[in-house]
User: What shape does this take?
Amino acid sequence: MTRFIPIIFVLLWSTGFIGAKFGLPYAEPFTMLMWRMIIVVPLFFLVVLIMKRPSISGKDAAIQGLVGLLIHGFYLGGVFAAISVGMPTGLTSLYVSLNPILIAIFSGIFLHTIITKREWLSLFLGFLGVAIVIYGASKWEGVISAKGIGLLTVALVSICAGTLIQKKYAQNVGLIRGSMYQYASSLLLYLILSFTIETGEVEWNLTFIATLAWLVIVLSFAAVLLLMYMIQNGEATKVASYFYLVPPITVLQGWLFFDEQLSWLTFVGGGLVVFALMMGRPLKAKTNK
Assistant: This one.
């Protein structure tokens, strides 16, 4: 069953962009994420107690806190904030899908891996396919601003750094307890941001509550645990390459939920993404000794 984990992860992770679009009309981005973490942290604490997960050292807890700030804090915060200032959902998902290329570049420095020419080619073909999908579907509708690009840059760098740190320093940390520390640190960040630069107001309605429930159960529990599992048990570059599938699937979800138009370019680009992943998947990065 482990062979299906990346596909399940991509399907779940891609719904985060749609969830942001559903929920942001009723709350500011950091406030929305604050409430998400307010629910997630106690639930993870209960799961740790019920499943009697072993404790971890203070050093490992600190590392998990840092990973949480990067992936659940600055990455999610940057994405949600960018969408809230008008950045197109398609462009947002495309921009952060540069993650596999950054991971490949910095894996040589932090993880001492060598990326082959074929792997580099698959990475760039994957990004090209994503660009074709988004261009054919949305034509960059929305407000593209320097602030939005800046927020997405913070998000992109953060998830890249968080992935590398998790891979290098957290190989033996339990997923459940480690995730609890990650979410706890991001909760502190959102509490500060919500009450300092936002109003903290929420329009509580059925749509917002349903969106929040989806983000908590499907994203914070299922998708993130699958991501942490893949990072621990796979090569960082391989794991990151699956993010290429997120924008095409996000586009399809946009068509399903928001009646966004598709074109033949959507299918051409999607096919190129799948080809790129198949091209890079059989390879194994070599390790310098």
